[in-house]
């Protein structure tokens, strides 16, 4: 007699119950001799879609214990079949609007994508937040409330891909004029952290950072801790987190002199060190992850702005941090570049895992495009992002993030 094969979905409720029943018999020493081993259940759960993971935690204690293991979380994030997303954010009337669209992998022709909208609003009256660079699909929003005798910093964590309301974190009272914020991840301890660089006022200027406050997510008691910085500095522009290290550009010494360097913050040890830049690198260059190494993108004019008159793009790569060795790669743009890009200026978004430089407009008026320039093929592809134009206004401003 031929055995009948039956197609079942790993996300089907009956399949989940059946797997759980066989797993329970295996653990409890039941009569089922071919029960599913725990390591096989582990592999099966890794293949489930994200929406099913939360439901599966309620199936049994065994499944719940597997799903909360740090090694499962790490493998699930790295082996997820969901392609990376591009995240767009724009403030509008004290609300923050997010849009997500699939990140194009190896683009070979002009195309268009439909974005999904999501918006968040704080539970108190305040201005639009500062946005930290997303990490692991999570976004940290930093709101500031004015209080008598100082300010209150209120971070909130959200995940735009799920559309759920943002989760507020403990507030921090401060009298500082400026607060630079970063959202970072420790891949060894499997911990997310929020780092705030506290900027002291200095006669109308922003001053330098002499101390930082840090908060670790996932602990029983969420509280802010002070950490000292060995050299006072003033962070400029947003940073990037690579293998547990946060890199960002900063001004040191006399903040009026404009002497810039790159700060490296080790997320696990919570210590600072400095990476010397090549003298030809601009303080306006955009830090990127180039094949696991720190890189910096800039235009032929030595800044982060690109337009139709730009002739080449530069990529600096940190070869040896101890010796402060950098390599410089110049990529000449083809003649058709002038016909592809709009008249408005573009800015660097980042670098994809397929070595595509991504650029976008900061202030689009009608159609919103992002551009992919491949470093190996020297091709330029533009992708239209649909569904955002209804939110545009004259002073509309969009920030774009990769690998969300």
From TrEMBL:
Q: What is the lineage of its organism?
A: Eukaryota, Viridiplantae, Streptophyta, Embryophyta, Tracheophyta
Look up the domain of life of the source. Answer: Eukaryota
What species is this protein from? Camelina sativa (False flax)
What gene is it encoded by? Answer: LOC104789087
* InterPro entries membership: F-box-assoc_dom_typ3 (IPR013187), F-box-assoc_interact_dom (IPR017451), F-box-like_dom_sf (IPR036047), F-box_dom (IPR001810)
Gene3D superfamilies (alphabetical): 1.20.1280.50
Q: Which Pfam families match?
A: F-box, FBA_3
The record places domain F-box at: 36-76
Protein name, UniProt field: F-box protein At2g19630
Coiled-coil residue spans: none
